[in-house]
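note to self: dont lose this again. the chain is below, predicted strucutre after it. 127 aa total, dont forget to put it in the shared folder this time
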Amino acid sequence: MRCPTCGTENPGDAKRCTACGERTNRKPRRRDPIDDTDTPFGKRPDSRPAVALRAYRCAVYGLIPLVGLVMGPAALVLALRAWREGRRDPAARGNGHVMAALVLGSAELLCNVVGLALMVVGWTSSP
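---
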């Protein structure tokens, strides 16, 4: 039986740990369920998902008209940065947020540029 405090391996019938003296029949503490979540609102276990989540949030906020002119390209840049960092560390999580930010950021950038171009053409061709 492994000691829940220090991790020392003890005999199966031992009441106390041979290394630290703690009780060995104690159950290990349960982790908070929010620690295991991969949602944008969960805790961030390391730096890469933080960049991926930031990119995802920028992409979602970029859906607001006119805000997308700034947030769409920002989401695209952050998502590309997170994707590049994720390629260096294959064990990193958050790939879904990176892909969502890449797709949304690209679509927002394209739509906002086309919309802005159409407005400029409309202004210049009006009598």
